[in-house]
């Protein structure tokens, strides 16, 4: 037998063995990791989905159709149901189906409030928005699981009023699920949050999760240190982020 062929065959065999044991790690880019996470959570189904859910007593609905989007919130008010719609054309508000003129000073606040809830409810889908900048900054182990650490920032153009906020996502190296995330924000004096995902469920092909929401009062804490503080129980549990009454309808089943 040819000695070179035999050595090459043995080398390839060892690579297969080591890979199966997890001793060889395939390196992906930040974009590839995020793409895999989105695909794992629902992929192209997001692009044609109508999603309903309840969060903290308010009803939400989103509709997406190949880039055209409509994000809605329904709130019971003293004069009836307040219906806010954020879409490609801006903000609309009605009360009991009657159009209401929103003061200029409130447009951004209302729009950001609606956007924020829908953004977190459909993660990781929003991580491929045009204004999102992604960077693989390392890896870490949390609760004996290995994760990619993806830093997310935003371009000023298209990044919204909070474009200076920073996010960090811990994406499981094998399952490509977003199991932890952290963010630093500047509004209302600023703050840092760390979220632990729990209660995963798949509804009509789209994955949803709830979160334990933690905080630290030290605003100088780097986001990539929060996983260590979490494991040492040095973060304070602030609240729970729970989605209820979830309903998903896919207008054109692509998968």
From TrEMBL:
InterPro entries: DUF6503. This is DUF6503 family protein. It comes from Aquimarina gracilis. The lineage of its organism: Bacteria, Pseudomonadati, Bacteroidota, Flavobacteriia, Flavobacteriales.
């Amino acid at each position: 037998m040819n000695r070179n062929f035999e050595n090459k065959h043995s080398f390839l065999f060892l690579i297969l063995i080591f890979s199966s044991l997890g001793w060889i790690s395939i390196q992906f880019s930040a974009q590839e990791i995020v793409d895999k996470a989105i695909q794992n959570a629902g992929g192209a189904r997001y692009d044609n989905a109508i999603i309903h859910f309840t969060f903290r007593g308010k009803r939400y609905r989103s509709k997406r159709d190949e880039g055209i989007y409509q994000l809605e919130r329904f709130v019971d008010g003293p004069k009836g149901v307040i219906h806010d719609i954020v879409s490609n054309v801006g903000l609309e508000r009605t009360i009991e189906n009657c159009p209401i003129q929103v003061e200029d000073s409130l447009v951004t606040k209302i729009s950001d409030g609606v956007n924020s809830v829908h953004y977190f409810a459909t993660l990781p889908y929003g991580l491929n928005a045009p204004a999102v900048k992604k960077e693989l900054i390392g890896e870490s182990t949390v609760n004996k699981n290995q994760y990619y650490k993806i830093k997310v920032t935003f371009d000023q153009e298209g990044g919204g009023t909070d474009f200076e906020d920073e996010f960090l996502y811990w994406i499981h190296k094998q399952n490509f699920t977003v199991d932890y995330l952290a963010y630093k924000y500047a509004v209302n004096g600023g703050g840092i949050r760390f979220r632990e995902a729990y209660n995963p469920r798949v509804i009509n092909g789209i994955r949803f999760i709830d979160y334990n929401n933690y905080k630290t009062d030290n605003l100088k804490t780097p986001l990539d240190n929060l996983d260590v503080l979490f494991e040492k129980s040095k973060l304070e549990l602030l609240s729970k982020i729970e989605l209820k009454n979830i309903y998903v309808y896919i207008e054109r089943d692509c998968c």
